[in-house]
Design a protein that fits this description.
Layout lengths: L2 H11 L5 H20 L4 E3 L3 E8 L2 E4 L6 E4 L2 E8 L1 H7 L1
Helix pairs in contact: 1-2
Length: about 90
């Protein structure tokens, strides 16, 4: 299901909202989650998923081909973890 199909499905489920209104709500939701996670705070939608930013520190590693010790840079990654109710419904 792509974004357009999601908007249509939500508009069909709720007859009080037009597709345009649903699109605006969905855009605002995505924007809010993105800004909050970018600032470093996690967002948890009960029964659905947790969105957060994971940071790893710089560390030393080993090149498996040569055995040489190398420095692995610090990095940030966006993570989404499905919560129990969602996993139970899907699996």
């Amino acid at each position: 299901m792509n974004r357009r199909e999601l908007v249509q499905a939500l508009a069909d489920q709720n007859t009080d909202l037009s597709k345009k209104q649903v699109e605006k709500i969905l855009s605002d939701l995505v924007e809010t989650i993105t800004k909050t996670v970018a600032s470093g705070d996690p967002v948890a939608i009960s029964g659905f998923a947790k969105f957060y930013r994971r940071e790893t520190a710089e560390r030393m590693g080993r090149n498996p081909a040569t055995g040489e010790t190398i420095k692995i840079k610090a990095k940030k990654a966006a993570k989404i973890t499905p919560l129990k109710a969602f996993k139970d419904a899907v699996l």
